[in-house]
Amino acid sequence: MFYLARFPATKVKLRKVLWRWAARRGVATDERQMGDLIESLHEGGYLNDEKFALARARSLLQRGASLLDIRARLAKDGIERERIRQTIDALTLGEDREEVELLAALRVAQKKRLGPFRDSLRNPMPAEREQREKIRKKDIATLARKGFGWGIVQKIMQASDEDLCAWQKKLQEQAR
Predict the structure, then answer these.
(1) Dmax over Cα atoms in the chain, in whole Å?
(2) Are 53 and 40 in contact (CB under 8 A)?
(3) Which region, left, alpha or beta, applies to residue 26 given φ > 0 means left and ψ of -120 to 50 means alpha?
(4) CA 29/CA 114 separation, integer angstroms
(5) Alpha helix segments (H runs only) across 26-123
């Protein structure tokens, strides 16, 4: 119970924690006992994979995670594939998924000062012009490693000032 009061958990994650706890303390237990305990916690409302998945996905999206990254992290947390699909659907309800991805990529680019947010690419000094393409490729690679598709990365890297202003407004609206 102390663990659940401090950390959100899924059934799978709690099962791992409880097995580690039992092993460290030399407590004899079997799979049936563990399953019964987890099921009673679930029925009591202490465990809810659906709420956990939605809260975790929203948090990740606000921090700039791609939908692909969100799927991978939820799967790692022990969320079932169907529940992940439902969570992504709920997360993008009424919005174009590409736009959701674009705004998440924009958050990353802003935070890490990539692409149009990098001062050296906006106003390159004469000595830096030779390295401009190298820096651009690094920025593209960073966004790709975060799980964003080529189309999204290109839009961010080739964004005009008007596009950036429009996207910034959308980000501010989402924050409210």
Answers:
(1) 70
(2) no
(3) left
(4) 51
(5) 31-43, 49-62, 67-76, 81-91, 97-112, 119-122
Q: 68 and 6: one domain?
A: yes
Q: Specify the pTM.
A: 0.78
Domain end among 63, 91, 119: 91
* C-alpha span between 95 and 133 (Å, rounded): 34
Query: Residues 23-38: pLDDT tens digits?
Result: 888 887 788 888 888 8
Q: Do 41 and 84 lie in a common domain?
A: yes
Q: Are residues 74 and 103 in the same domain?
A: no
CA distance 145 to 71: 15
Residue 105 burial (C-beta neighbours within 10 Å; 0-12, 13-18, 19+) = buried
**pLDDT-wise least confident of 7-21, 84-98, 118-132:** 118-132
